[in-house]
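__Protein archive entry__

___
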Amino acid sequence: MSTILTSTFKNLSTTSKWALRFSVRPLSCSSQLRSAPAVQTKSKKTLAKPNIKNIVVVEGVRIPFLLSGTSYKDLMPHDLARGALSGLLHRSNVPKNVVDYIIFGTVIQEVKTSNVAREAALGAGFSDKTPAHTVTMACISSNQAMTTAVGLIASGQCDVVVAGGVELMSDVPIRHSRKMRKMMLDLNKAKTLSQRLSLLTKFRLNFLSPELPAVAEFSTNETMGHSADRLAAAFAVSRMEQDEYALRSHSLAKKAQDEGHLSDIVPFKVPGKDTVTKDNGIRPSSLEQMAKLKPAFIKPYGTVTAANSSFLTDGASAMLIMSEEKALAMGYKPKAYLRDFIYVSQDPKDQLLLGPTYATPKVLEKAGLTMNDIDAFEFHEAFSGQILANFKAMDSDWFAQNYMGRKTKVGSPPLEKFNIWGGSLSLGHPFGATGCRLVMAAANRLSKDGGQYALVAACAAGGQGHAMIVEAYPK
């Protein structure tokens, strides 16, 4: 009998194996989801390393994150990025000519401004002698912008770098079909009327069918929402738990908004419209109302809905990053140190959204810290099911041993330290801009609550992930 069970288990898909393993260990956190107070800890050692430059965040801002199709819908991505850069200049008072380099992350690129960092920088009044480039790494694009800035400063190439990110989901490129594009290009190359007429005879009505942007993984052809639904099922995360977590995110975000904790926001004047001053996606509901929604991806039995998923968002963020020496020489009081970071990647089908699980233990080991040393956790919330599945994976010795090659689990973050000012589910998720928001939330929480270390982590399309340690700057 045991031989049959062993054989059967080996032949199960990865998802089915996880479901068997975790179905007997449901996440019992319903009562904990409402906890919000931050935990203050005593001062610990600094993570400064000999002969290595200290890199600091001097300031970081973002324009309000808005639901796509609202106040930003008639703008272009560089308009939003320009707003973030202008807000950063205004708040920090940094002279534009001091900035050595500008890097922005984005995911869905506007073809007219493919290097959106450069266009936004020129629009914000930076010198045309200041280089700028754009990076893309799905939902961790601005994370990549920040760590690229760290590398430029640590290597001595720069002293002052602005890193940020932008996304405008209200207006995404919609292309002609490939056949139509080919015909148009060939027509453009045709030199005679007969050549053009010959090409036109090949035209068919179906050439006019547009190509809409795919929100699916290229390698698996599966949408991220579908992956999140399967992941939630694999880790036995119930619909109720997902809704409770989403409600927690919105409730904590509303509380933080009302109490003025979202201080990284700078007002943004929309041309021809009012000035936007706050995020508009924070909408605490009730579990009863959320339970009425139908599954969004796997129908009719899925558990991922519009209420427990992050929404399409427009927004931009920007951070002023310097060497500590340069910041102090200019008279600045930095916000925080940017310390160790790590990028990870894994199977984009069954482990698409498990980046935080893989990145967290690695970055902690790199920094010589444990989960108990962390005073504030800021994780990207793509879906409630994704967050809760990561919690379960992080808290499982079995998963650590069988999938991560580790002897023991790293442990899941305590909720009283986790995303206590809300997260992407409530604040919004402009793909290219979220990383900077996470780091600034971490830095501001450390400053407010007296903690020393924060851990920022995020998953991304392609099965990738990022984690970083942020250390409070001494008061």
